[in-house]
TrEMBL record:
Gene expressing this chain: dnaX
InterPro entries: AAA+_ATPase (IPR003593), ClpA/B (IPR001270), DNA_pol3_clamp-load_cplx_C (IPR008921), DNA_pol_III_gamma-3 (IPR022754), DNA_pol_III_sug/sutau_N (IPR012763), DNA_Rep/Repair_Clamp_Loader (IPR050238), HLD_clamp_pol_III_gamma_tau (IPR045085), P-loop_NTPase (IPR027417)
Name of the featured protein: DNA-directed DNA polymerase
SMART domains in the record: AAA (SM00382)
Domain AAA+ ATPase: 37-179
């Protein structure tokens, strides 16, 4: 049997299995149980968040012969046919490659015919924003006068490119980025089912690198598993994602705080030599600075918002750094990140960033000094106002 990617094997088959989109799935289930099926839906959101999966589940549920609480049974004749891509009444169209007027006119000509087996004929149009202007106009005509037996489900990652006239004729559902915690929980569930061991930190790295997309997380996990089928290690996860390990990042920032530019530059060069991505490296540094800010203001909040345990040496080195300096460092890094987008010299920019960060650690005014200066200025102004009143 041919190998199937994890995101295909673990594609959700009912609404309960959809990760991180509870509001969307509950609303769709309610519309099914109350028999309030709209003629057109628009699923908008980032890639890998479950738009196409929910569209297929919804198509199953409204055509299921034994639906319970808005969920498809996955056992009846219609559900099995849809799962096996045999039901001709469910039509999937990729708008990226079928974006012309002729393709949409073909749909308009066929919608008038009733479904052959199912209750509803469902058209799932993926990446609908790729349709041409003429195609959108042709689709608009169909959405204005839809037959009762037809349901359109439009999916897009770029809602701003969909004409307002189309959006206003659909029920819009916004799919949000999936939280790292929800992604991690699903990855752990999959690995447990497959009886594969894992490092907790490896799961955290994969979940963070997925950037809110379950499909991306499963693709990364697939690559990590290719290094060794019996264990998901932190080392392999870092290798695949291009992330830097927490120990190296902590060592880098400790050198910055101690104004040891040479050691910080050596750490950066070593990370580059190990294959770390410049963007992932910058994101890791920003996240670590964020964690230090949380630790300075509310250590309990840090445990709730971060997966990592701060290095003891880093915490010690950071005691001499005020929050204002950390804010300044984050601003500097953001500037470098913007410049990196238009440059092929990522290593050079990070070396410059390192020098600037060390200077920020040395020259930024501590908060207490700034506050004292402000207070002195206020008192001076108050004195001047009092003198003017006496005159």
């Amino acid at each position: 049997m041919a190998y199937q990617a994890l995101y295909r094997v673990w594609r959700p088959q009912n609404f309960q299995q959809v990760v991180g989109q509870k509001i969307v799935t509950q609303t769709l289930k309610n519309s099914i149980t109350t028999d309030q099926i709209s003629h057109a839906y628009l699923f908008a959101g980032p890639r890998g968040t479950g738009k196409t999966s929910c569209a297929k589940i919804f198509a199953k549920a409204i055509n299921c012969l034994d639906s319970q609480d808005g969920e498809p049974c996955n056992h009846c004749e219609n559900c099995v046919a849809i799962n096996e891509n045999r039901l001709t009444d469910i039509i999937e169209i990729d708008a990226a490659s079928n974006n012309g007027v002729d393709e949409i006119r073909d749909i308009r000509d066929k919608v008038k015919y009733p479904p052959t087996q199912a209750k509803y004929k469902v058209y799932i149009i993926d990446e609908v924003h790729m349709l041409s202007t003429g195609a959108f106009n042709a689709l608009l005509k169909t959405l204005e006068e839809p037959p009762a037996h037809v349901v359109f489900i439009l999916a897009t990652t770029e809602i701003q490119k969909v004409p307002a006239t189309i959006i206003s004729r659909t029920q819009r559902f916004n799919f949000r980025r999936i939280s790292a915690d929800d992604i991690a929980e699903q990855l752990i569930h999959i690995l447990t089912e497959k009886n594969i061991s894992y490092d907790d930190q490896a799961i955290a790295v994969i979940s963070r690198a997925a950037d809110g997309g379950m499909r991306d997380a499963l693709s990364i996990l697939d690559q990590v598993l290719s290094f060794g089928n019996d264990h998901v290690s932190l080392e392999n996860a870092l290798e695949v994602t291009g992330d830097a390990d927490d120990q190296s990042l902590a060592h880098y920032l400790s050198a910055i705080f101690n104004q040891n530019v040479t050691e910080a530059l050596q750490t950066i060069n070593t990370l580059f030599a190990d294959g770390c991505s410049a963007n992932r490296l910058i994101e890791g540094i920003i996240e670590l600075l964020r964690d230090l800010l949380l630790q300075k203001n509310d250590a309990q909040l840090l445990t709730q918002m971060s997966y990592r345990q701060l290095d003891a040496d880093l915490i010690t080195a950071a005691t001499q750094i005020q929050s204002a300096q950390l804010y300044q460092m984050i601003d500097l890094i953001n500037e470098i990140q913007l410049q990196l987008k238009n440059s092929a010299h990522s290593e050079l920019f990070l070396e410059v960033m390192t020098v600037k960060l060390a200077n920020a650690a040395k020259t930024a005014a501590p908060v207490s000094e700034g506050a004292a200066a402000n207070q002195a200025e206020v008192e001076k102004l108050q004195t001047q106002v009092a003198e003017l009143k006496q005159q």
